[in-house]
Amino acid sequence: MNDKQSMTTHDSLKAVSYKLFQVISNELGVNTAYVTQRGPTSMKIISSFNKDHYIIPEGYVVDYDSAYCRLIIQSDQEAMHIKNLGSFTLTKDMEATEELEVKGFLGVTLRDFYGEVFGTLCVMDKEEKDFSDKDIHFLKQMAEVLSYVIHLDSTLADIELLSVPIIPIKKGLAILSLQGNINEARSQKIMEDTLHYAADKGIHSFVIDLSQLMLLENQFPDVLKNLVSGLNVMGVQVMMTGLPPWLVQMPGVSEHLSQLKTEYVADIESALNKIGYKLEK
């Protein structure tokens, strides 16, 4: 897995795969469909669908050497179809076979836009399944669709990583507008760029606007606490604006916010007025 893939949250891939899973399940007559991502040593389920029986949960991780996906990726056909996992030589003794209690299986290699292996697209069922060449071709077509979506997610990740919108107002004063989702990689860039900017430009007051913030998987971004602490240590006054009501009402968020050494005001104009900067026509 390359660095770009590891930084990407694959929000678009998850959204599109959820829509495709129902189609795949109906077309192939299977209970479960899922997408895996290959890591350095393991395979992780990043999206899944279970029609009647709950077999594969999202977030499920298995060592690469113990995963069906290894057999798919290493196959010359970039596909593997098995009527009964419990009786097939290469899979009958696998830990996953006993744990999941499934029989019918079909999986194809999932590549990104540039042809690099991303992971796999797989289906499975509690019952034995005879998959035809037509079925394999269909699942490969679905994997091709998802490869374009992986590329979209990578492109969006690049844009997010490059985007740290700091707006200079006047000497010593700037605004940081935190927009969209903030993942680990983007948090690091926001932290580094903001602290470097404050030092290079001699900033004494930073207004951090949260009105366009979105939470990734409902996790409050630790970068806010670290960023405010870092700016405080540098002698920079920090004010926060635009706190959305939905954010404040989320469990644990108020506690996080109360721990920050900063002042909260309704909007950017109010923050600038408090600092002593007047907006005039």
Give a written overview of the molecule:
It is a single chain. Residues 1-7 have low confidence and may be disordered. The chain has ten helices and eleven strands. A six-stranded antiparallel beta sheet has the order 3-2-1-6-5-4, with helices on both faces. Strands 7-8-9-10-11 form a five-stranded mixed beta sheet. Helix 2 (11-28) packs antiparallel against helix 5 and helix 6 (184-201) packs parallel to helix 7. The protein has helices at 3-7, 11-28, 68-74, 95-100, 133-162, 184-201, 223-233, 245-248, 253-258, 268-275, and strands spanning 32-38, 42-50, 61-63, 79-82, 104-111, 117-125, 166-170, 173-177, 205-209, 237-241, 263-265. Helices cover 40% and strands 22% of the residues. Strand 8, helix 6 and strand 9 (205-209) form a beta-alpha-beta unit. By secondary structure, the protein is an alpha/beta fold.
Topology:
Layout: H1 3-7, H2 11-28, E1 32-38, E2 42-50, E3 61-63, H3 68-74, E4 79-82, H4 95-100, E5 104-111, E6 117-125, H5 133-162, E7 166-170, E8 173-177, H6 184-201, E9 205-209, H7 223-233, E10 237-241, H8 245-248, H9 253-258, E11 263-265, H10 268-275
Parallel strand pairs: 8-9, 9-10, 10-11
Antiparallel strand pairs: 1-2, 1-6, 2-3, 4-5, 5-6, 7-8
